[in-house]
Specification:
The protein has 574 residues and is α/β, with parallel strands linked by helices. The protein is built from 12 helices and 42 strands. The radius of gyration is 25 Å and the shape is globular.
């Protein structure tokens, strides 16, 4: 075991990064070399393999039915609908290739993935959610992403677990009847709630816990009948909210401005970390030793992870982890996996797999795509156990002796995740563009793929100026209308320029007394995430005068918020 940290030079961004002794111990356990990309560049590389929002109408290449897919019609590989992809009408082993020691391994793998059929959408045990990608064990999900664990009736949202009747929300768990909730747990009938939990019938609240009937308030604990952090009697409270016109779009826009100013003046804990000893990052709950992790819960001994849901001994994993162990450099979906490395979308029950793509219920795979219930395969070709074990070390050595060089001159020996240029998606349609935005010129210079936005000639049937101000004045006739987006495509939010309100969504607006939106779901999403802290950490000091404490935080030094260490925060708020 290496007893000292080492400084490496990232071959992508050219910046120095540090590998700690615990990192070396993990790499030794996994029998992989230390990375040559820094953690941020590794995350960017994985995110480039995840298209969450861009959906296309096309035909299934097997049954020829019209389908919704994350791939357009002009892909180099076949795309199958859910029924065809899971059927016995084809076998991924039919695409098996003999390993060629005269070519780099990754060149051969690229040839394989450009031939093997791909699944139209990543969905696992989901019902009635045809216009949604990256969903598992949920029902009635519409234009949302990363919705799991029995969620139902979810619209235009992301990171939704065990929740119901959710619209325009982000990172919401165990909640019901919520609109524009961000990083909340166990909320009911609440709108515009941020970093709050166990709250009922609240609007425009920040960092509130165990509250009921609270409005435009921050840093509350166990309170009821509060407006602008001022307590009222029950009768006074309801008299006041009668005057506030929450059903009015114009009034709501003014309250949103007031709420934004309120949040800036509130006290901010340096990180949202709850019941997670030894953890650093942000938005971590019920975890242990989760370092430099974000959007993580129920995990143990993890590092450099994002949207991690359970699991232990995990490095560089994004979107997965349920009941999984010993995972490294992996993105999207894993469940009940063990010892999976450098892979994309292992659905479940995959173990001892390297460089795989959309495999499930399989083991002992190297360089395989779309394999189901298989074992001892290389480049989708079947081997005996003895043949596999004899060939595997030779291939790893071959990857070091004949590395793949990408279009940007970056070298890929054994132990590196796939080059971004292998992604089936244009860079600007992936999560990488969302979190690590590049210009078209930068994308092309790096050797990645850029796709120009397709011209959409929607003809609105409803101008936003024609929509009544109050939700109480709007009836079901609005359902199905083509409403112009207020941004009219003049933003950088992947604006669709027009949108519709469906029946289920409209009924929720009515029930929650929420005015109809005036911009499209894509613009609403990007406005929402612009208010969320980035996936980075800065070393800072507590802002309370006289406090010497220091910490790692996602609040950059140039932000306006008041940021306290945990001790000072608890003294002021708890």
């Amino acid at each position: 075991m290496v007893e000292k940290s080492e400084t490496k030079h990232c071959q992508n961004c050219k910046k120095d990064f540090t590998i700690e002794p615990d990192d070396f111990a993990f790499y030794e356990k996994m029998k992989v070399p230390a990375p040559t990309f820094c953690s941020e560049c590794r995350m960017q590389r994985r995110f480039a393999f995840r298209n969450e929002w861009k959906l296309y109408q096309r035909k299934c290449d097997l049954c020829k039915k019209s389908i919704i897919a994350m791939y357009p019609a002009n892909t180099t590989f076949p795309v199958y609908c859910h029924d065809c992809w899971y059927s016995d009408k084809w076998d991924a082993k039919d695409y098996g290739m003999e390993y060629n020691f005269s070519q780099p391994f990754l060149s051969q793998f690229k040839e394989l993935i450009n031939a093997v059929p791909r699944l139209n959408l990543f969905q696992r045990n989901s019902i009635n959610s045809p216009f949604t990608n990256m969903v598992g064990e949920s029902k009635n999900v519409y234009l949302s992403c990363s919705v799991i664990d029995g969620s139902e009736n979810v619209f235009y949202s992301k990171f939704i677990d065990k929740s119901f009747n959710i619209i325009d929300s982000f990172s919401t768990t165990n909640s019901d009847m919520c609109y524009e909730n961000t990083h909340v747990d166990r909320n009911y009938s609440s709108s515009f709630a941020v970093l709050s939990r166990n709250c009922i019938d609240c609007r425009f609240i920040y960092d509130c816990i165990n509250c009921k009937n609270c409005i435009l308030s921050a840093n509350l604990r166990n309170r009821q009948f509060v407006i602008r952090n001022k307590s009222y009697s029950k009768e006074e409270y309801f008299n006041e909210i009668e005057k506030m016109n929450f059903d009015s779009y114009k009034a709501t826009e003014e309250y949103k401005k007031e709420f934004s100013a309120l949040k800036q003046k509130a006290i901010h804990k340096f990180a949202d970390i709850t019941k997670s000893p030894g953890s650093t990052g942000n938005h971590i709950t019920n975890s242990k030793n989760a370092e430099h992790c974000f959007e993580t819960h129920d995990a143990e001994d993890a590092k450099y992870c994002f949207r991690l849901v359970g699991g232990k001994q995990l490095y560089d994993l994004d979107y997965g982890g349920i009941n999984s162990e010993l995972i490294y450099e992996y993105v999207t979906g894993g469940k009940n996996d063990r010892k999976v490395m450098f892979s994309v979308s292992a659905f479940e029950a995959v173990h001892d797999a390297y460089y795989t793509d959309y495999c499930s219920s399989s083991s002992y795979l190297f360089g395989c795509s779309a394999m189901r219930s298989k074992e001892y395969c290389i480049l989708n070709k079947q081997y005996t156990k003895e043949e596999y074990e004899e060939l595997l070390p030779k291939i790893k050595q071959h990857m070091d002796d004949m590395p793949y060089i990408d279009k940007g001159g970056r070298m890929y020996k054994y132990g590196e995740f796939f080059p971004i240029e292998f992604s089936p998606f244009p860079y600007n349609e992936t999560l990488a563009q969302e979190c690590f935005p590049l210009t078209k010129e930068q994308v092309i210079k790096n050797g990645f793929v850029w796709k120009d936005e397709e011209v959409k000639n929607y003809i609105p049937t409803k101008s936003i100026s024609d929509i009544p101000d109050r939700i109480t004045d709007i009836d079901n006739s609005i359902v199905g209308e083509i409403i112009e987006c207020g941004h009219k495509g003049l933003c950088d939010h992947w604006c669709t320029k027009a949108f519709k309100i469906n029946s289920e969504e409209f009924q929720l607006y009515k029930k929650m007394n929420i005015p109809l939106p005036r911009i499209c779901p894509s613009c609403r999403y990007f406005e929402r995430i612009s208010r969320i802290e980035p996936l980075k950490l800065w070393h800072r000091k507590c802002m309370k005068p006289g406090c010497p404490n220091e910490f790692e935080t996602s609040y950059s030094p140039d932000r306006p918020e008041i940021v306290y260490c945990e001790t000072c925060y608890n003294q002021e708020v708890a």
